[in-house]
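Exercise 7b. C-alpha cells:
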C-alpha cells in the first residue's frame, strides 16, 4: 500500500509538472508570431472561400488575454479591374471573442467594430456586378452550401460609405444579437439568406435615427434581390414587407408594405404636430425607380390627437387613401370623426410643413369647435355645425393658419340653441 501511495504521489507530481509545462508552452504560443501568421492566413483563406474574391490584410494583432483580434487595411476585391478601387476596403476591424467551453469548442463573437468601411458596388453593361461568387466545391448532391453562419452580440459600423455605381451614401449602424446566415444555391445561381438583429440602429440622411428589431429573409439573384419576408418591430409597432428589387444597374423596387403603429413611438420621426396618443395602421405599395420613391395605399388612425400651439383636436378617428412622393403627400377619400361630428374631404402636405385640407363638416359640436383654441371654457349656446370648411397653414407656426368656412347652425340638445348661417374667414397671422 505504501508503494502505491508513493507511485500515486509521483504520478500527481508528474501530471502537475506536465500541466505547468503545457500551460507555459501555450502561453508562449499564443503570443508568438507563428500563431498570428497562422490566424491571419486562415482569415484570408476563409474570407476568399466564402466570398470568391481576393482578400488582403495589412497589420494583424491578436490579444490572447482579451481574446481580441485587430485587422488593419482589410481589402476585398471582386470582379472589378485591378486598377479600380476595390469592392470593400476597411481601415480597421476589431473582433472580440468569448469562449464558453474549450472542451466542447463552443465560442461566439461578442463584438465586431468596423471603422471607415468603403463599399463599392458596380453594375456592368451586361447587368452583372462586381460581386463575386463563393469558392465552393461542386461535388455533392446538396443544392445549398452554407458559407456564412455568423452570430455576433454587438456590431458597430462607423464613418462608412456605400457607393452604388455613381451614387454614394453614408453608412453608420449599430446592432445587437446580429445573426447573418447565407448559403449558395447552385441551381439559381443565387445567395439565399437571413439577417436578424435586436435591436438594429440605423442612421440615414434626412431621417431621424431609427431603432428596430429586424428579421429579413432574402435571396440575391442575377436579376436582383428578392425579399421574401421583412419584419421590423419597435415596441408595440410592427412593419411587414415583401417584394423585389430589379436590375442592379438601375435599381427598381416593388414592395407590399403593411404596418401597425403606436403613435407614442413615432411622433418624433413624423415631424408633424401629433401627440403621442392613439394608434395607426397602414397598407401600401412601395415603388422606387429613377431615384424617385412612391408609396400609395390606405391608412387609418384611432384616438389620435393634434396639438399646435393653443390648438387641440382630440380624439380623432380617421380613414384615408394616401399617396406619398418626394416632398408631397396627398389624401383622398378622407373620412374623419372628431369634435362630435364627421369631416369628409381631401388634403395635402408639402415639404412636410405646409398643409391644406378642404372638405365638409357634418354635425360638429359648436362648443367643441369653440374649445379647439380657447381650451375648456363654458359656452352658453349649443348647435350642430355643418358645411364646407377649408384650413391651410404650416406646422412650423400656428400664426400661418387660415380658415374659411360657410356653415349652417342647427339647434342641438342642451343650453341655448342657435340656428342660422355663418361665413368665416379667419387669418390667425392678422388675428382677423
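Sequence design result:
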Amino acid at each position: 500500500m505504501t508503494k502505491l501511495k508513493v507511485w500515486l504521489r509521483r504520478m500527481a507530481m508528474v501530471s502537475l509538472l506536465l500541466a505547468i509545462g503545457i500551460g507555459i508552452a501555450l502561453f508562449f504560443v499564443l503570443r508568438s508570431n507563428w500563431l498570428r501568421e497562422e490566424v491571419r492566413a486562415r482569415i484570408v483563406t476563409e474570407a476568399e472561400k466564402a466570398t470568391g474574391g481576393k482578400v488582403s490584410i495589412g497589420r494583424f494583432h491578436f490579444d490572447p488575454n482579451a481574446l481580441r483580434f485587430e485587422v488593419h487595411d482589410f481589402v476585398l476585391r471582386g470582379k472589378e479591374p485591378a486598377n479600380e478601387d476595390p469592392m470593400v476596403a476597411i481601415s480597421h476591424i476589431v473582433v472580440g471573442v468569448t469562449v464558453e467551453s474549450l472542451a466542447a469548442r463552443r465560442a461566439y463573437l461578442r463584438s465586431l467594430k468596423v471603422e471607415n468601411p468603403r463599399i463599392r458596388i458596380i453594375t456592368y453593361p451586361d447587368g452583372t456586378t462586381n460581386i463575386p461568387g463563393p469558392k465552393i466545391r461542386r461535388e455533392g448532391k446538396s443544392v445549398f452550401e452554407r458559407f456564412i453562419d455568423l452570430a455576433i452580440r454587438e456590431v458597430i459600423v462607423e464613418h462608412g460609405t456605400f457607393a452604388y455605381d455613381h451614387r454614394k451614401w453614408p453608412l453608420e449602424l449599430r446592432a445587437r444579437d446580429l445573426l447573418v446566415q447565407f448559403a449558395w444555391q447552385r441551381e439559381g445561381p443565387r445567395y439565399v439568406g437571413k439577417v436578424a438583429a435586436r435591436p438594429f440602429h440605423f442612421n440615414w440622411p434626412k431621417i431621424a435615427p431609427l431603432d428596430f428589431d429586424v428579421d429579413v429573409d432574402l435571396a440575391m439573384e442575377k436579376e436582383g434581390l428578392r425579399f421574401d419576408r421583412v419584419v421590423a418591430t419597435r415596441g408595440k409597432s410592427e412593419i411587414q414587407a415583401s417584394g423585389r428589387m430589379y436590375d442592379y444597374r438601375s435599381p427598381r423596387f416593388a414592395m407590399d408594405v403593411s404596418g401597425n403603429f403606436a403613435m407614442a413611438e413615432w411622433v418624433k420621426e413624423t415631424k408633424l404636430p401629433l401627440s403621442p396618443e392613439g394608434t395607426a395602421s397602414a397598407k401600401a405599395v412601395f415603388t422606387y425607380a429613377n431615384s424617385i420613391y412612391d408609396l400609395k395605399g390606405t391608412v387609418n388612425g384611432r384616438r389620435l390627437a393634434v396639438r399646435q400651439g393653443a390648438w387641440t383636436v382630440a380624439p380623432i378617428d380617421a380613414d384615408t387613401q394616401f399617396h406619398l412622393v418626394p416632398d408631397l403627400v396627398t389624401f383622398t377619400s378622407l373620412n374623419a370623426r372628431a369634435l362630435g361630428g364627421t369631416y369628409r374631404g381631401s388634403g395635402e402636405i408639402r415639404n412636410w410643413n405646409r398643409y391644406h385640407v378642404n372638405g365638409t363638416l357634418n354635425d360638429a359640436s359648436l362648443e367643441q369647435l369653440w374649445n379647439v383654441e380657447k381650451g375648456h371654457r363654458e359656452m352658453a349656446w349649443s348647435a350642430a355645425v355643418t358645411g364646407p370648411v377649408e384650413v391651410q397653414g404650416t406646422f412650423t407656426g400656428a400664426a400661418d393658419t387660415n380658415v374659411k368656412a360657410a356653415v349652417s347652425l342647427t339647434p342641438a340638445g342642451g343650453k341655448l340653441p342657435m340656428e342660422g348661417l355663418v361665413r368665416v374667414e379667419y387669418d390667425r397671422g392678422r388675428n382677423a
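Instructor comment: Helices lie at 2-30, 33-51, 267-270, 366-374. The first helix runs from residue 2 to 30.
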